[in-house]
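Quick sanity check, FAD-containing oxidoreductase:
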Amino acid sequence: MSTAFDAIIIGAGQAGPSLAGRFSSAGQRVAVVERKHVGGTCVNTGCMPTKTLVASAYAAHLARRADDYGVVLGGGVGIDMKKVWARKQAVTMNARTGLEDWLGGMPGCRLIRGHARFTGPHEIEVDGERLNAPKIFLNVGGRALVPDMPGLDGIDYLTNTSIVELDTLPDHLIVIGGSYIALEFAQMYRRFGSEVTVIERGPRLTSREDPDISDAIRDILAKEGIDIRLGATQLAFACDGGGVAVTVAGEGQSPMRISGSHVLVAVGRVPNTDDLGLDKAGVHTDERGYVIVDDELRSNVEGIWALGDCNGKGAFTHTSYNDYEIVAANLFDADPRRVSDRITAYALYIDPPLGRIGQTEEEVRRSGRKALIGKRPMTRVGRAVEKGETQGFMKVIVDADSHAILGAAILGVGGDEVVHGLLDGMYAKALYTTIQRAVHIHPTVSELVPTMIGEMQPLV
C-alpha cells in the first residue's frame, strides 16, 4: 500500500520548506521527508552556527585591540567555549524549531522523519512506508568530502559538521584545506586562542579567486599568527600521544611533521545522492554524483527536480533558495525563471570579509574582451580608517565598449554588504556610469565605489 501525495520533497534544507509552503497554499498535499535535522546545512552545520561563532571570535579579537581605540579593560581577554557553544546552539535551535513549527502548521503538509529511497520513478520508501507523487523534489544537500589519505582513517578528525559541536578549545588545530570553510574556521579558532596551521595542496589559498585576492587573504591570516603551508601535495596522518601528527611533503620540499591536538578536514563537499536509489528512478548524475538538471532544475526523469547543493548549480544557501524560487515561479506563477539568469555571487566570511560577484579578473582576461579595472585599497576608504579596519582592497571590472559591469571583489570591512550595490546594478543591467554618478551616504565604504569607478584604467 502506497500513500499518495501531490508532491514529495526529500530534504528539509533551504529550498524544501518554502516549496512545501507553496504546495500547501495551493491546497495540495505535500510530504517533506527529512532523515536528520530540519533546516539542512545552513541552519544546523553551516551558515547560522558558523557565523554565530565568527561573531564571538570577532568580539574576542576586538577586545584584544581595545587599547587601539583608547579603551581600557580590567584584565586579559578570556574565552568561555561552553558559553560560545551555548550561544551558537541557541541560534541554531531557534531557527530549526521555527522551521519545524512552520511545516507543522501547513495545511496538507506532513513532515516525515526517515531515510527516503526510490523504489521507482514516482515512489519512495521511508523506513518501510511507501509514498508516491507525480512530482518529487530532491533537496538532499551535501556533506564534507573526506578523501582517502594515508592514516586518516586511524585518527579522530573533524569536519565542518563535528567541529561546530566542540565546546572545548583545541590547543593546536591543523586545518587541511585552504578554501572558504577551512579559512573561516582557521581564523575563528586562532581568535579563540588556538594555535592554528593551515595546510593546502595548491600553490595559493582560495584558488578560485584572483591571485591578488589570494595573496591579501594570506597576509591577513598570517598577521594573526596562522601558520600557512602551501604546495602540500603529500599528507600522512598518525596518532601522536593524545593528539595527532601530520607529515607534510611536496615537490621540492623535505617531509615535515606537524603535531597538533585536532585536525579539521575541509577540502570540499560531495552531494548526498549516493544512497537514495536514484538508479531505480532512472535519475542521471554526473561523475561527482550531482543530479544533472536543465535550466529549470528538472532532471532527466519527468516529474523529478533537484534543488540546492545536490544539483551542482551552486553550493550556497542563497542559490538553494533561488532554486526554490525558480521551481515555484515555473510551477505556480507562469513565470519562466531559469538558473542561467543568476549572477555569480558569494562571500568568504573571514574578517575582513570578501564579497565576490560576476567574473574574476582572470576570467575577463581569458575572454579577450576590452575591459577597464579599478582598484582602491581600504587604507584610502575613510570609513575603514575611522573604524581602524583598513586591511584589504576593492576591485571592479567593466566592459570598455558596452560599459556593462562584469564583476567585482571587495575584500574589506563590510565587503559582503557593499558588493550588493554593484550586484543590483548588474541585475538591472545598469551601466557603470550609473553607479559612478550615484550619490552615496558619507561616511560609508560604499561611497568610495563611484570614486574607484572614476579612476579605472584599461586592463592590460
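Posting the structure with no commentary besides this: Residues 81-104 form the longest helix (24 residues).
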